[in-house]
Every structure is written in structure tokens, then in C-alpha cells.
Amino acid sequence: MTDLLDGTLAVPVGKPRYEGANIRTWIGFKHFMYLSEEGVLEYFRSKGVGPEKLYHAYGLGLEFVDHSVSLPATLGIDDAVTAVVEPGRPKPGHGVPFKVKLTVERDGEAVTVCSGKVRVALVTLKDVPAAEPVPAFLEPYTVPEAAALADVAGEQAREADAADVAGVLAPADSNAFLWSWRIPYFYCRFSDRMQHSGYVRAMEEVVDRFLDARGISVRTMLVERGWIPVVSRARVHLLADALMEETLHTVLNVQEIIKDVMYTASFDCYVHRDGKLVRTATGSIMHGYAVSRGEKAGSLAEFDDTTRAALLGGRA
Fold it and tell me: Rounded CA gap, 291 and 48, in Å?
């Protein structure tokens, strides 16, 4: 019998996609997460149960349900990345845990550019017929849906009228920023539900929209101050399914400013069903800026009063 969580895998996962080089030739945070996903997929393939085999043979969907990253170094568009995937100790009902480290070679040494934790669940797909029974070594990680995982058990839907979603999620006296949008098919997986990387994209976009709405858009800071956006940490955790073409209500809320060089923000996503707001994902991001010109080039930018007020919605 195969042991799914046996041994560490070090595997090349290629170079980051050109799409991620948005500021000069540095790669944005979501592509670190994409490369970490690739490492985990290679781990499953090395065990003979890649996502295609899981889908067609057993009617299972490999679902990334929780992914957090810390980014201690930059990643460039021409860097060749190796993923080191180490299985963790599983807890009953929590899925398959991994630690993932991304490394690149610089000056003959391996440099860690990303350290992260990834959790995967194998979801039973109702409309996909299984050609074979699910093997015993996969059964402990199989669930009917993301909402059935043990760490989601206490999640409660919120009563709300459809017309009052904005008032509930982003009341006027809060610092919350709300963006409501239709889930497109190309953010989905298994023909019906939003995938983890779709939420990662949404996190990047809601931050961009928030900064623009507060008068400190990415372009504004680049042109006027030479400040380059930097993300040092990010996490996205799935709580329930959001379905293709549903409206996803995405809320960003800046929580605190750290030493005037970084800010942390919460990220929450909801769908409105049957008079209730169901939270489908949560997460967080730590964001700041690097100075790109002048005598302080390369250092973290210090927020001034204007920046602090914009991030905190005028609050002290």
C-alpha cells in the first residue's frame, strides 16, 4: 500500500510566468503561491495520484484549501525555481498538510525566496463517476466539500437581506472596503466552483481597488514617490464553495500599521444565499513599499500622515 505522506520531494518547478513581472522584473506574490502549488501537484504525481488520475479514476478533486506564504527574498523573471515539498503531520478531518520551500541559486548557493504551508483536501465530485474505488491510503483525506473540513465546523452564516449586503459587510463607520463581482469560469475548477488561485487573484485585485479608492493607487505611488509595492506575507483559506457566476462579495479591511513601513489587512469573501451571507474564504496580507530611487533606494518606505490616513480611513 502506498503511503501518501512518505518522504520529502525536491523538484524543479520552472521559472515564474512572465505575467507576474508587473514592476520591473520582480515577481508578484501570487506567482510565489502558484509555484508552491506546482510543487505540491508534483508531489501527488510522484505518488501516482496526480490530479488527472484522481479525477478520472476516483472522482476526486484535488482542492487547495489553505495556503500561507512568507517571502524573505525577491524572485526574478529568469530565476529557475526548485520546490522542496515536505509532508506534515495530518490531523483527522483537516486534509493533507505540507511545508513548501521555494529556492533559487544565486552565486552558487541556494537562496530561499518563499516559505509556506499548504493544505489540500480530496473532494468527492458528485457529477464525476468514479471508475475505481478510492484507495485506502487516500480515504483519510477525502471530504464531500471544503465546508466539511474539521477546522470549518464553527463557521456560521450571517442573516442579511440582499439589498443590505453592503451595509452589513462594509458599514459606513468602518474601514472596510467592499468589492462585489461575478465569478467567471476561468477562476473555477471542476466545472463549478471557485478555486484557491482565483481567491489569490481576488486578493491582489481588491488591494489594488482599495488603494485606488483611497487616492494612493499603485501607479500614483510609483510615479509620484518611486514606491514599489512589496508583499511579505499572504494567506488564503477556503471555508465553503463559491460557485461559478455567483456574486462574490470581497471585503478588505486594513487592521494595523506596523512601524510605519508595513500594514496588515484582512480578506474575506461571501456569497448571498437564501437570505444569508456565507463566508467562503478568509485570509490576510502584509503589504508595504520599497523605495526605488534616491539615496534611500532599496529600503522600506516610511508612511507619512497622508498614507496612514488613506490606509486607515482617516482613523488615528
Answer: 47
Do residues 257 and 307 lie in contact, with contact meaning Cβ atoms separated by under 8 Å?
Answer: no
Over residues 156-213, the pLDDT tens digits come to 999 999 999 999 999 999 999 999 999 999 999 999 999 999 999 999 999 999 999 9
Distance CA 2, CA 136 (A): 9
C-alpha cell at 239: 471555508
Q: Cα–Cα distance between 205 and 213 in angstroms, integer? A: 12
Integer Cα distance of 276 and 168 in angstroms: 11
- Cβ contact 206:177 at 8 Å: yes
91 CB contacts (<8 Å, ≥6 apart)?
Answer: 97, 150
Q: Which three cell numbers mark 98?
A: 505540507
CB count in 10 Å sphere of residue 8: 12
Q: Helix, strand or coil for residue 156?
A: coil
The Cα–Cα gap between 267 and 255 comes to 10
Query: What is the rounded distance in angstroms from the CA atom of residue 100 to the CA atom of residue 118?
Result: 7
Give the CA distances from residue 34 to residues 102, 127, 196, in Å, rounded to whole numbers and listed in that order.
Answer: 11, 27, 10
Report yes or no on whether pTM surpasses 0.90: yes
How far, in Å, CA of 40 to CA of 123, rounded?
A: 16
